[in-house]
Design a protein that fits this description.
With about 220 residues, the chain is an alpha/beta fold. The protein contains six helices and nine strands. Helix 3 (about 120-130) links the parallel strand 6 and strand 7. The longest helix is centred in the middle third of the chain and has 19 residues, at about 85-100. The chain starts with 14 loop residues before the first strand and ends with a helix.
């Protein structure tokens, strides 16, 4: 007879930062990468936002693997369908731990911007729904909110947040059908996302990111 068990263990997580925290820090960006990426590469997309008043943190998914064969590049993932609830709990605790580590170091009136790309969109949403951290802006880029969650009981929580959904018109993962389904999902859950599109594929287009970011902080 095969027995299946669970055991909590300590493990080492990795994350990367851009900028320094000081009394003049006004913006804190917590950015979650997509499937098969590494945080140390992903965070480079955000150097276009850097000023002395900005601090950026990019955590890396807890599961690493070889991408495209054993001799391929190493990549990371936030979760799979295998024991998914355990993986969700682990990364929610991980993100919350990072959040609680850095928030006390930041000035009281810092603007907190949460960013998720592709698989990182669901990662951000599940953490937000589980832990309800304080934040001001949420940017979901080339991904979607998880459809198995009911956001309506927490609509008061999202009411004063700035919500943005961004995708490229040539994104092969976001077909017209999937876009319509996601728009309907947002409507049913009473999530008021501002939608932004750009001519591009499944990627964080740096010039588009800079324009959106600048419009957010200027507005």
């Amino acid at each position: 007879m095969i027995g299946e068990y669970q055991k909590k263990v300590l493990r080492t997580a990795h994350y990367y930062t851009l900028g320094e925290i000081h009394t003049e820090t006004r913006y804190f960006v917590l950015a979650c990468h997509g499937y098969a990426q590494l945080a140390k590469h992903f965070i480079r997309r955000f150097d276009i936002l850097m000023n002395d008043d900005t601090f950026i943190l990019a955590p890396e998914g807890l599961s690493r693997f070889y991408w495209k064969g054993l001799t391929g590049e190493v990549a990371a993932s936030w979760m799979t369908k295998e024991d998914r609830l355990d993986e969700i709990e682990d990364y929610c605790n991980y993100l919350q731990s990072l959040y609680e580590q850095y928030i006390p170091q930041l000035p009281e009136k810092v603007r907190i911007i949460l960013f998720g790309f592709s698989q990182g969109c669901a990662t951000q949403c599940r953490w937000i729904m589980e832990k309800m951290p304080h934040f001001h802006d949420l940017i979901l880029w080339a991904g979607a909110v998880p459809e198995d969650l009911d956001y309506r009981p927490k609509k008061h929580y999202f009411k004063d947040k700035n919500l943005h959904w961004v995708y490229g018109t040539e994104d092969s993962f976001l077909t017209p059908k999937r876009i319509l389904m996601h728009q309907e999902l947002l409507k049913v859950n009473e999530l008021d996302f501002e939608i932004h599109t750009f001519e591009g594929k499944h990627e964080v287009e740096r010039s588009v990111l800079k324009e959106l970011y600048q419009n957010m902080i200027d507005g």
